[in-house]
Amino acid sequence: MEYSIKGNLLKNLPDDASEELLNIVYQHKNIRIEQIISSGQTSPEMGWYDQSENEWVLLLQGNAQIEFEDSGVVTLGTGDYLLIGARRKHKVVFTSKKPDCVWLAIFFGD
C-alpha cells in the first residue's frame, strides 16, 4: 500500500499561541507523529511525564529545555533532536516565545 502525505510544519503557524497546540500529522499502529507548537508553555509544576512510549523529538524552531528526573536539564536549539526512552521521567521547563518552539515528535513502542 502506498501512502502520500504532504505538508509543511513551519507554514501557517498561529500568530498567538496562547496555549500549546498539538496536531497529529500521522498515526498508525505503533507510531504517532505530532507537530507541537509551544510559546512559553512548560510542563505542570507538579509531576513528571512518565510515558509508556519512546519519544523522539526534533526542535524545528526555537529554544527549549527538558529536565530529566535522574540527570538534570538538556538544552535544545533549532535543529537539535533527542530520544526519550519509555518510562524516562521528564518535563519541559522552558520554551521560547520569539520564536515559538515548533516540535516534531515521534512516539513509538518497542
What does the model show?
The chain is mostly beta strands and 110 residues long. The chain has strands spanning 21-28, 31-38, 54-61, 64-68, 72-76, 81-84, 90-95, 101-108. It contains no helices and eight strands. Strand 1 and strand 2 (31-38) form a beta hairpin.
What is the radius of gyration? 14 Å
Supply the number of helical segments: 0
Looking at the structure, what is the overall shape? Answer: globular
* Main β-sheet, spatial strand arrangement: 1-2-8-3-6
Mean pLDDT: 92
**Major sheet: size, sense and barrel closure?**
5 strands, antiparallel
Count the beta strands: 8
Distance from first to last alpha carbon: 24 Å
Beta fraction: over 45%
What is the N-to-C succession of helices and strands?
Answer: EEEEEEEE
Please estimate the helix content.
under 10%
In short:
This protein is an all-beta fold and 110 residues long. The protein has strands at residues 21-28, 31-38, 54-61, 64-68, 72-76, 81-84, 90-95, 101-108.
